[in-house]
């Protein structure tokens, strides 16, 4: 049943019709009471096997070009830091803007998200806070995405770049003349 539920969520995400906060809340029920170290260790175990092979050379080159240009470089993702930080470390990216999970005073997950979820408009809100702190405007930024769910942030930045987009995002990117890259 869990596999079926995950497949449904993945399909809804791909179609851009998912109620992300509701899905996140449901998914986090199983985290309640678990130590943060459990998730850190789990992610450390599967990162080299499942994530590292998916990091593309074109992505590495893009990060390098932005760093060499002196740009503020960050991963902006709906995932949590437990997934995003190993990717950032591998790519030499110092900043991660992501969804955050609530911990109790003993370092155990409560099963709750710290609002806003880094998804849709929440991605803009979280990114804008970091931009203000770091002294730049997201309206002057470049943002790379593959998903229609990132359309709100793509519409705000100066330079949206679409990478291996889903069907709906490809259609919008073509209509708006945004760069579309295959990595």
Can you give a write-up of this model?
By secondary structure, this protein is an alpha/beta fold. The chain contains eight helices and six strands, in the order ααααβαββαβαβαβ. The protein has helices at residues 2-15, 20-28, 36-51, 57-68, 81-91, 121-134, 151-156, 167-176; strands at residues 74-80, 95-103, 109-114, 142-145, 159-163, 180-181. Strand 4, helix 7 and strand 5 (159-163) form a beta-alpha-beta unit.
Task: Tell me the layout of helices and strands.
Blueprint: H1 2-15, H2 20-28, H3 36-51, H4 57-68, E1 74-80, H5 81-91, E2 95-103, E3 109-114, H6 121-134, E4 142-145, H7 151-156, E5 159-163, H8 167-176, E6 180-181
Parallel strand pairs: 1-2, 4-5, 5-6
Antiparallel strand pairs: 2-3
